[in-house]
Amino acid sequence: MKSQTPQLMLQGIHTALQRAEHASLTPVLRQQIESALKEAVHNAMGLPSGENFSSRVVTILFTDLRGFTAILESHPAPKLLNVLNRYLVRMSEIAFEHGGTIDKFIGDSIMVLFGAPDSREDDVRRAVACAVEMQIALFDMNKENKKNGLPELNMGIGMNTRTVMAGVLGSDIYAEYTVIGEEVNLASRIEAYSLRGQILVSEATYRLVRDYVQTGSPADVYVKGKKDPVNLYEVVAIPSLNRVVPRQEIRKSPRVETNISFKFQLLRGKSVAPEQYSGTVLDISYNGVLALLDIDVPSQADIKLELNLAIVGTSATDLYARVRRMIERDGRRLAGIEFTSVSPQSNRVIRRFVQLLIQGGESK
């Protein structure tokens, strides 16, 4: 493979997207764009074609746009391609400025490696600095997008540092340098927990940069394939560089779509009314739900809920909540419901249920 400069790589990205600028964003077109991006990236890096797989310590950084599907549905393709073009180019520039290697583009996600194919002593610090600069750059881009009437993009970032297998995978027809292993999967799952504008890192990454970054309190989450919860840390600043992550999300909990039925009863004073009603949870977080109700319920009404959370093998039966708002949408009664009293057991069950939904499946 011929080696090209990062500038030529970025030009290849720009050209690939420009060719599709006035076309419809069909699945075939998206695949063509992603193929062109991948080819431009790997040509630019001049990766060795015959390297055998070897173990090495790598920091894996995943980025992903939040709510991008909704943006696709609500904006014309040419306008969206222009925004996506600028986003991919800017994030690629930042990755290269910090010495990262773009492993692949996965839809609107980017996978960046630090420590492969070349390693440096400060790989982890450069990776964290890269993530912070990416969030700052996107925040600035969004201010410009808003001023120009263009859609704003929101990104979550997840990182993990561990020993993985690295090398060239493929055949004479097509091959690419990549990393494989469970620790790569963990990095991807950490990214899935990140909210808009957030950077989450694993315990392993945190230990290597704890004297370099400022973080929030650790949060334990359940990860598919892991028996015990793992600790995640939110990077909020790099004091020595005077860089602060411009968080764009005030929620403290991820929120995921679901479709589960539940039962509820109204509270009258301190008593629970005997009448039982039904509803359907449309999305859920650690702190509440958005639900479709069978009856009209006054705003600020207190209720008792019973949720059947089958994928974690139990129910949450001692939930008390308040209906914060009622919304009429397409003839349906939608209620924003906030939990007001949750037992420790039910809290653990709800958190695990949400975390499994984030990862897209049942516990293993």
Protein model, in words:
It is a single chain. The protein has 364 residues and is of the alpha+beta class. It folds into 2 domains: 199 residues, Alpha-Beta Plaits (2-Layer Sandwich); 103 residues, predicted glycosyltransferase like domains (Thrombin, subunit H, Beta Barrel), CATH 2.40.10. It is built from 8 helices and 17 strands. Strands 1, 2, 3, 4, 5, 6, 7, 8, 9 and 10 form a 10-stranded mixed sheet that branches. α1 runs antiparallel to α2, α1 packs antiparallel against α4 and α4 runs antiparallel to α5. The radius of gyration is 23 Å and the shape is globular. The two termini are 41 Å apart.
CATH superfamily of the largest domain: Nucleotide cyclase, GGDEF domain
Number of strands: 17
Domain module tally: 2
Q: Give the terminus-to-terminus CA distance.
A: 41 Å
Helical residue percent band: 25-40%
Indicate the proportion of strand residues: 35-45%
Mean pLDDT: 82
CATH topology of the largest domain: Alpha-Beta Plaits
